[in-house]
Amino acid sequence: MQVHNLSENNSILTHFLAQIRNVSIQGDSMRFRKNIERIGEIMAYEISRTLAYKNVEVQTPIGIKNTTAITDNIVLCSVLRAGLALHTGFMNFFDDAENGFISAYRHHKDNTDDFEILVEYQAAPAIENKTLMLLDPMLATGQSLVAVLHKLIAGQTPLETHIAVVVAAPEGIEYLKQNIPDNCHLWVAAIDDCLNTKNYIVPGLGDAGDLAYGRKL
User: Is 2.60.40.10 the CATH number for 2-213?
Assistant: First the structure.
């Protein structure tokens, strides 16, 4: 798996990352969602630089312009519910993409810290020989993303797989390396320090789904 860390150099991306982490700013749900969306747009642009293109001729009002257009058949798939704002950012750039949605959550047995990942809902198009972009704001242990990816590609082989996350823990990155195909790409806006004893990212930003859409029961 190839890892692309987009915050290795300063850019407007790191500016938006600082805002979604800041407790004095992130309480504004609308602003939090918008910043996640804008981070999605930046990540979509970076991924677009690796896609396949074909030569095309465009008729302008004055003449013909030789340029290029994307040839990949793209499927965007986000992990509910936290991935929705990130998904919107990608849709803003990939106009013709098909879209899928899948759920995954930590199920804690007997109210302990131990958990299993449950994937209970999937609505996604066929991904055979297409470019899959799997979107989720947080990569903590990596278990949910691995479970979701295996569910999506069961019996199908995408042409390429790009996983896009906003904040990742090193432990989650290592788990993905050990449990997903080698030809996958992981795009990360920021890599944080570690996981705590409850498997939350440190320093992280909190619960992305709650910050974007309100606390759940």
Answer: no
Helix (H) or strand (E) holding 165: strand 160-168
The reply to whether the predicted model has a pTM over 0.85 is yes
Q: Are 6 and 162 in contact (CB under 8 A)?
A: no
CA proximity to 165, closest of 196, 205, 129, 215 = 205
- Type of residue at 73: N
- 163 close to 185: Cβ distance less than 8 angstroms: yes
Are 104 and 144 in contact, with CB atoms under 8 Å apart? yes
Q: Locate the domains of the chain by residue range.
A: 2-213
Report the distance separating Cα 217 and Cα 6, nearest Å.
34
In the beta sheet, which residues pair with residue 107? 116
Q: Are 134 and 152 in contact (CB under 8 A)?
A: yes
Q: How far apart are CA 182 and CA 143, in angstroms?
A: 17
Please return the burial class of 198, using the count of CB atoms within 10 Å of its CB with bins 0-12, 13-18 and 19+: exposed
Q: Is 146 left (phi over 0), alpha (psi -120 to 50) or beta?
A: alpha
Kindly state the DSSP code that residue 156 receives in the 8-state scheme.
-
| CA–centroid distance for 110 within its chain | 31
Predicted confidence (pLDDT) per residue in 27-79, tens digit? 999 999 999 999 999 999 999 999 999 999 999 999 999 999 999 999 999 99
Helix or strand or coil: residue 185? strand
